Hints:
Layout: E1 2-7, H1 10-20, E2 27-32, E3 42-43, H2 51-60, E4 65-68, H3 71-76, H4 78-84, E5 89-90, H5 94-101, H6 103-112, E6 120-123, H7 126-136, E7 141-145, E8 154-157, H8 160-172, E9 183-187, E10 192-200, E11 205-207, E12 212-213, E13 216-218, E14 222-225, E15 230-233, H9 240-260, E16 267-276, E17 279-286, H10 294-297, H11 305-313, E18 328-335, H12 352-357, E19 361-364, E20 367-370, E21 373-376, E22 380-388, H13 391-402
Parallel strand pairs: 1-2, 1-4, 2-3, 4-5
Antiparallel strand pairs: 6-9, 7-8, 7-9, 10-11, 10-16, 12-15, 13-14, 15-18, 16-17, 18-22, 19-22, 20-21
Helix pairs in contact: 5-6, 7-8
Bound molecules: glycine (GLY).
The site of glycine has 7 residues, from loops.
Amino acid sequence: xxxxxxxxxxxxxxxxxxxxxxxxxxxxxxxxxxxxxxxxxxxxxxxxxxxxxxxxxxxxxxxxxxxxxxxxxxxxxxxxxxxxxxxxxxxxxxxxxxxxxxxxxxxxxxxxxxxxxxxxxxxxxxxxxxxxxxxxxxxxxxxxxxxxxxxxxxxxxxxxxxxxxxxxxxxxxxxxxxxxxxxxxxxxxxxxxxxxxxxxxxxxxxxxxxxxxxxxxxxxxxxxxxxxxxxxxxxxxxxxxxxxxxxxxxxxxxxxxxxxxxxxxxxxxxxxxxxxxxxxxxxxxxxxxxxxxxxxxxxxxxxxxxxxxxxxxxxxxxxxxxxxxxxxxxxxxxxxxxxxxxxxxxxxxxxxxxxxxxxxxxxxxxxxxxxxxxxxxxxxxxxxxxxxxxxxxxxxxxxxxxxxxxxxxxxxxxxxxxxxx
Length: 421
Ligand code: GLY
């Protein structure tokens, strides 16, 4: 089978590494990929948003399965365009991907189908949003842009000034373009956050190992939000009792709700949960594998990912025996100095072989291959993942391997996997 993975980050590298283990995977391409991915797949210089380019390439190269990994091409209808040409895909259609692409769609779905989540109001008019904030006067409060905003469209405002500033920036300042023209103002839920990625074929939903990620740039959950500075799985917070409740109150109702609305979801449904004193509630849905969560969840998968993806496509997920490895996985992200603000690329990277020789897997998020070796080419550069018998063991091994890697300005959090945050 010839497989094409669309995307270019650590998540895509983790998907490719897992697909490579399938006896059916004869050849893997990646559009556009990155330097490190090119060691595992043939990278093709087609942008992840170039729907026509991906369709033409898939036709010309008789691709058997296209995995659309990032949110933007899913929301833009890449899966629909490929399906229209009879090409097998993994990922939801544009209509189903609204569960991520429109926060208002997702909240309305949850409200209509009694799926637990934070209470909210929707505003198209900035004056009304500002007056609602004044009248409600409860902090912290969550301000969310309706549309996709590179993971930056959520502000937890601690004061009235912060809340108003967020609304003004999104609705009047055009901070996220059209994505911020409509905002939600939400109750701020209290509790720990857990990610549950689920395979979903529209009939059956199968949760993967629950994980946790670390979004802030500095230790102790300080500093601005990033795309994710590390992750670990399984989450000790996701007990059997919580898992059963989540399945009953959230996962199955979401699957049924999407079908009832006519948007059958096939792909990976990312359910971001807040474990509140009243039980698990949905923070957000995404229509794809999470990043960096995929870099700890897929290494624990002990079944053939290609076979699962094909079963999802053919709505045969119920027949699959999906197995997981015992133990735990931890991923430490190495980022460029200055990230998530301004940073410079082109810094030579050393120690990659030494890190892998210690048993870790190094996923490339933003690297370029040059004649002299790999150089940095992104904010998040590498994700160093290790498996262990226990979470503590996995964390220790991931850090020991990450310490081997050097580039000018490299930055990593030192507290990945700490449970007291
Ligand atoms: N780790 C958060 C995300 O993938 O959206």
